[in-house]
């Protein structure tokens, strides 16, 4: 008896990749999952930094999908290489700073390298023609296959019958008649298939898995690039964009203001790297300052910090400032009035 | 059999899982790995990764804001 053929499935944690892997597993193929971590992925417990989100399910959806399928999952860190994709995508951005088509090409390319290194035969994805406006269109499907180098080793089980035959189909490794011809934005065919397979609990599909699709997040990233004069970032930069209220009162500095205890705890981990402020006479947020500040700036930052504390209506609030070079300054300030904070300070 | 430690404190998931995966890949069957995390999500994710990839969680403890998970490397 010959060993079964092996497929690497790109597992995002959503419904489509779950179904695609299941369809191929059911054809007797050995499937293992690959999940790529870019730094921009939305994870349940990244949200759970915030106290109010603690009740949300704390699970990594890709791992959960792998468990449902009974397959191994390899989580691969592509943070460094991904920076070039975000900074200058060949195919441009979607509605925000989401480089969806370049992202998909890159991930399939990495999957191609992975199957070559691990003795696997082909790659499967949960793509569906017409499902996403930027990356999942009839005309982008061959672009992904060719530019990634996967070519006809890339099989999309959910829409394969609307596409030319791939090598796994031609060679008879999989039965094309048992693949699908899903097309368009409707989720009904996927939901029906999920029911047929007995999957009742799955992550809400489509679009919500990457912070770069979020308008506000993209705005903050664009601000970061603009003020630094370069389209580069470190992992800590993009983590901090997910947390707190971001205000830029002056071009040369930004404030990151914890919105509640969970965020304050998270920001505490960054205290040594940033000038930071907190109120001592009233409960209030931990505030990090990103940028270079002088005395006048510290006065303004202290007034803003007081504004977001429980002393916002008080005449005087005590604020302690710890500068990045290790000095401590205490100030007594009147909180800035709400109407003195222009809307364009908020990022 | 050897014992190894992994400091994954201050990392947000899935980084503790990725670092665990890398470390386990360097160890031998029967070795024990102790992972120290501060992201509470690690309580769910590292055991899930172990179940999916065939390794055994020996113990999970929480103390002083840390999650400490002991893993036995198994034949994967």
Structural class of chain A: alpha/beta
Q: What are the secondary-structure elements of chain B, in order, as H or E?
A: EHEHEE
What is the CATH architecture assignment of the largest domain in chain A? Answer: 3-Layer(aba) Sandwich
Which CATH class of the largest domain in chain A is shown? Answer: Alpha Beta
Strand content of chain B: 35-45%
Oligomer state equals heterodimer
Total individual domains of chain A: 2
Span between termini of chain B: 16 Å
| Helix and strand run of chain A | EHEHHEHHEHEHHHHEEHEEHEE
Q: Sheet with the most strands of chain B?
A: 4 strands, mixed
> How many domains comprise the coordinates of chain B?
1
Helical percentage of chain B: 25-40%
General description of the model:
The complex is a heterodimer of chains A (347) and B (76). Chain A is α/β, with parallel strands linked by helices. Chain A has two domains: 206 residues, Rossmann fold (3-Layer(aba) Sandwich), CATH 3.40.50; 103 residues, no CATH class. Helices cover 33% and strands 16% of the residues of chain A. Chain A has twelve helices and eleven strands. In chain A, strands 6-7-9-8-10-11 form a six-stranded antiparallel β-sheet, covered by helices on one side. Chain A has a five-stranded parallel β-sheet with strand order 3-2-1-4-5, sandwiched between helices. In chain A, strand 10 and strand 11 form a beta hairpin. Chain A is elongated and about 75 Å long. The model of chain A has no long low-confidence stretch (mean pLDDT 91). By secondary structure, chain B is an alpha+beta fold. Chain B has a single domain, classed as 2-Layer Sandwich (Translation Initiation Factor IF3), CATH 3.30.110. Chain B is built from two helices and four strands, in the order E-H-E-H-E-E. A four-stranded mixed β-sheet of chain B has the order 1-2-4-3, covered by helices on one side. In chain B, strand 3 and strand 4 form a beta hairpin. Chain B is globular. Chain B starts with a strand and ends with a strand. The model of chain B has no long low-confidence stretch (mean pLDDT 94). Classes of the chains: A alpha/beta (347), B alpha+beta (76). Chains A and B meet through helix 2, helix 3 and strand 3 of A and helix 1 and helix 2 of B.
């Amino acid at each position: 008896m010959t060993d079964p053929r092996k497929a690497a499935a790109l597992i995002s944690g959503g419904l489509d990749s779950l179904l695609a892997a299941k369809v191929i597993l059911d054809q007797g193929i050995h499937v293992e999952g690959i999940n790529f971590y870019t730094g921009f992925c939305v994870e349940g417990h990244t949200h759970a930094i915030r106290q109010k989100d603690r009740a949300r399910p704390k699970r990594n959806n890709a791992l959960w999908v792998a468990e449902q399928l009974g397959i191994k999952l390899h989580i691969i860190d592509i943070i460094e290489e991904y920076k070039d994709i975000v900074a200058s995508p060949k195919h441009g951005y979607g509605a925000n700073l989401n480089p969806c088509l370049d992202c998909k090409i890159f991930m399939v390319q990495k999957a191609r390298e992975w199957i070559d290194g691990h003795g696997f035969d082909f790659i499967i994805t949960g793509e569906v023609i017409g499902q996403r406006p930027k990356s999942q269109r009839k005309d982008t499907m061959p672009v992904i296959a060719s530019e990634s180098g996967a070519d006809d080793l890339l099989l999309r089980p959910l829409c394969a019958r609307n596409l030319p035959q791939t090598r796994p189909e031609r060679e008879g490794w999989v039965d094309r008649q048992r693949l699908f011809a899903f097309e368009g934005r409707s989720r009904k065919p996927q939901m029906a298939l999920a029911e047929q397979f007995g999957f009742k609990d799955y992550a809400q599909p489509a679009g919500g898995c990457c912070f770069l699709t979020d308008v506000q997040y993209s705005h903050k990233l664009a601000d970061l690039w603009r003020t630094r004069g370069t389209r580069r970032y470190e992992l800590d930069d993009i983590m901090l964009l997910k947390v707190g209220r971001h205000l830029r009162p002056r071009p040369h500095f930004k404030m990151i203001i914890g919105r509640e205890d969970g965020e304050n705890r998270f920001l505490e981990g960054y205290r040594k790297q940033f000038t930071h402020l907190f109120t001592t006479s009233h409960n209030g947020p931990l505030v990090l300052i990103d940028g270079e500040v002088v005395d006048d700036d510290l006065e303004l930052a202290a007034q803003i910090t007081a504004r977001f504390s429980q002393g916002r209506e008080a005449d005087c609030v005590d604020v302690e400032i710890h500068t990045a070079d290790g000095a401590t300054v205490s100030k007594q300030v009147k909180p800035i009035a709400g109407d003195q904070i222009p809307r364009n300070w908020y990022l | 059999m050897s014992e190894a430690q992994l400091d994954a404190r201050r990392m947000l998931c899935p980084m503790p899982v990725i670092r665990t995966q890398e470390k386990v890949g360097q160890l031998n069957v029967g070795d024990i790995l102790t992972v120290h995390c501060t992201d509470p999500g690690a309580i769910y994710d590292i055991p899930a990764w172990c179940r999916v990839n065939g390794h055994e969680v020996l113990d999970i403890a929480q103390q002083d804001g840390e999650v400490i998970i002991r893993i036995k490397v198994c034949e994967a």
